[in-house]
Design goal:
This protein is mostly helical and about 160 residues long. It has two domains: about 55 residues; about 70 residues, no CATH class. It has seven helices and no strands.
């Protein structure tokens, strides 16, 4: 299953040989999970994300979350999961982070907003990114600023049509 959206690659700290070893390890783990056509740039993004921080297992977890989110899957709320929320990005995302937490942490009444099939690509992309956010939230994964930045970038592109 190939992802429909491009992820912004970020090369993690460390030597190039280590990165290649990690990429191969991620590919092997994804193959065990039934994913064989994940692009290397997506693997690089996952490895370089603040959530994974170079960890193969956490990168695989991120890629599985991305893939399920792109497929339209939303993880249900579980009272057994401690939800960590999101890190405020440069003191400007606290309101939207709080709003999304309130809307999606425990309630399923807002899920149709992000499950709806949109015709326009920017809206489909934003819905997919919000599903990633919700799935991470409901799995108790702290949402770092690179994911928050990715969400803001998509929203700005949707609202203005401009990418800076």
């Amino acid at each position: 299953m190939q992802a429909k959206y491009e992820f912004l690659p970020r090369v993690p700290q460390g030597a190039h040989a280590d990165l290649q070893f990690q990429v191969q390890a991620v590919k092997q783990r994804l193959k065990q999970e039934g994913l064989t056509d994940v692009k290397e740039e997506h693997i690089n993004f996952a490895l370089g994300s603040h959530n994974a921080d170079g960890s193969v297992e956490k990168a695989v977890q991120m890629l599985l979350i991305f893939q399920k989110s792109l497929e339209g899957v939303i993880k249900p709320y579980s009272p057994d999961v401690y939800m960590r929320g999101a890190i405020n990005r440069n003191a400007v995302t606290c309101y939207i982070d709080s709003l999304l937490f309130a809307m999606f942490a425990r309630l399923d009444s807002f899920e149709p907003i992000i499950l709806r099939g949109f015709e326009q690509e920017p809206k489909r992309r934003l819905a997919a990114i919000l599903r990633v956010y919700v799935n991470m939230l409901r799995q108790g994964i702290l949402i770092h600023t690179d994911i928050v930045c990715w969400r803001a970038f998509s929203r700005r592109k949707l609202l203005t049509g401009v990418v800076d």
